[in-house]
Specification:
Length: about 150
């Protein structure tokens, strides 16, 4: 229970005790002027009635303020939930776009790697063919200079 509520309960309790202790004075009739007319009524009871009406009006106002605050809070909570959902959807969309971009880049990198490997194999094959041709030329020159191999010579 809040301090404000406790204070209101204490004040109303003290007012009730005061009214009970002075009940005979509260109900004693008095001459009251209402500007246009005069009446004979108990002043204490009239004032107690005005106090009760004023308390009811203030209670109604407090309830209205509380209901408006709860309504605003609920509306803001709902708006925050919608904004959070939009942000989550946008983030998911960005992740999807990033995944697609990375897949494209990786595909492009794989293709580039495959192309580089193919070119390297072609160049390696060309170098191997060139080396084989050079070895063949050197072998032919050696055979022309000495038609029989040295191990077969007498």
């Amino acid at each position: 229970m809040s301090v404000r509520t406790l204070l209101v309960i204490i004040v109303l309790g003290l007012l009730a005790i005061f009214a009970m202790v002075n009940w005979s004075t509260f109900i004693a009739p008095t001459h009251l002027s209402l500007v246009v007319t005069s009446v004979e009524a108990p002043l204490g009871l009239v004032m107690l009635g005005f106090t009760a009406v004023l308390a009811a009006v203030l209670l109604g106002y407090a309830l209205k303020v509380q209901i408006n605050a709860l309504s605003d809070s609920r509306r803001q909570s709902e708006e925050l939930r919608r904004q959070r959902e939009l942000a989550d959807q946008a983030e998911a969309s960005r992740f999807t776009e990033l995944r697609q971009y990375l897949e494209q880049e990786l595909g492009s990198a794989r293709q580039s790697q495959l192309d580089s490997e193919r070119r390297l194999r072609e160049e390696l094959e060309a170098v191997a063919n060139s080396l084989a041709a050079s070895i063949g030329v050197v072998d032919d020159r050696l055979e022309r200079q000495s038609p029989t191999p040295p191990e077969r010579q007498p």
